[in-house]
Amino acid sequence: MNTKQLELKAEEIRSSIIEMLVEAGSGHSAGPMGMADVFTALYFDVLNIDPDRPNMPDRDRLVLSCGHICPVLYATLAHRGYFPKKELLTLRKFGTRLQGHPHNLDLPGLETSSGPLGQGLSQACGMAMTAKMDDAKWRTYAILSDGEHDEGQTWEAVMFAGKNKLHNLTAIVDRNNIQIDGFTENVMPLEPFADKYRANNWYVLEVNGNDIDEVLGALRHARAVFEKPTVIIAHTVPGKGVDFMENDYHWHGKTPDNREAEIALRELRTLRGKIKSEHE
Amino acid sequence: MMKYLIPINEDFLRKLAATRDGFGQGLLKLAQKNKEVVGLSGDLVESVRMDAFAKAFPDRYIEMGVAEQNMAGVGAGLALSGKIPFIASYAVFSPGRNWDQIRVSICYSQANVKIVGAHAGISVGPDGATHQALEDVAMMRVLPNLIVVVPADSVEAEKATIAIGEHKGPAYIRLGREKTPVVTKTETPFKLGKALEIISGKDVTVIACGTLVAKAIEAAKKLDGKISVGVINLHTIKPIDIDAIIGAVKQTGAIVTAEEHQIAGGMGSAVAEVLAEHYPVPMVRVGIKDRFGESGNPDVLMSHYGLSADGIIHAIETVLKRKNAR
Fold it and tell me: Which of A95, A100, A255, B142 is the most buried (most CB within 10 A)?
């Protein structure tokens, strides 16, 4: 896929997210919308995966640490062909494979279970260690929120990956600057964020996480770094694509009602039209 | 006269070894057979007896530093990509401070991780209350998908280590620091989930685990000729062997449980749950009675807190009074 096709895919995924959330009536909106471009870049370009063989031994692994943004993972997996798109509307409902927070045993394509923050990077480190011990070529990607860097375990894992020079591990941090109680720098300041990773022997890249070309460039760059694990600090706009959601931390943990969803979907359609016309 | 139902080491008071040593031997044997076995320790490789494994298989040993939460997560990641990790620390730290990681990263995901809680119980001694894990069984046995094993001695610890390594799914094994009587022998049966009836009794059954198994046998011997005491080694606390418990209690009508753990939530509680639902009889639990431990010589502490043959005999007398008053 070229950039425009990827951008269109990301907007389709955003529309699916809005449709899922309004149907579910609970869940998180801002994070999933902000990360649609990163997920699109990973699942439609970077990852060596096969939706027909979700357990293929040499597949790349993607660990979603901040499980609350799972609507973007579910929507991306459905668009990528792991399961029917209509199943997205079962999110959070009784009997669904799309649990409120991801459960690895329920749905093909999920590598781990997550929800309680701070646990994903450790698991990604474990997977990267397996590949290292087995001299295998597959890579591990971990998606983290910025807020979950409040958790001590995240930094235990950061130290561990640095120590073990896990160059087959790439962490992508959704640096959207919001968490439930407000802006990250007010709740618990993370800056100087990149320096903290550097001090723990990581290679740091910073990108506009809503620019697919930049994201792809960084993900490819990370594969060429052989002496250290790489973290891509992806600066994203929470709620990206929907005007009234963007940059408003109140949208971290709530969902649109029917009227708001209608506006959001209309905006996303307009955005797709714009991308298409630029493409032509 | 009492007799043993299975082959045991009858001179057990004179043969001492630590369960952590049995674990170390079991891990080494398992690792020699299966190349996917890996070991992780939180800055305690020698204390938890992972040193022989680490020396034999340096590429399969991972030093975690003092970071038990990360250890549980790295263990989960290794397991979810095909390895069989044993994650080891003192029980007060793991599962003491990484319960959520064990719950979500390991148990919910059914990650094939083996959690090794060493230096458990009050017999850690001089280190004092902070280092005496008396709550770990309670914390672990409420978690779905997890097997919980408390071996009685070093020989059983070796067998249990191999058994949980061969079992596909998460497991917790509890180990002690001190050298304690070795009751079982190589030929003594061991099967996960199957309680080991050592002595058959008519008057009362003592169900024990860990270091208290030897003390239960001691108590039965002391009372021999006066009271017919049955002894069961309930090494697997989860899944619990309901049939063995009900079978024994139907013969004796009275139960004493004995463990080096808080009486709330531990093995005794698990047995009480079984009895309350299936076959209620008078019961007394020997264990730590809702308090923290303290520094001291292990033997002094075990006696002081009633975790001794005499403590068990006292509990037997109490339970028999209740039984006979019915």
Answer: A255
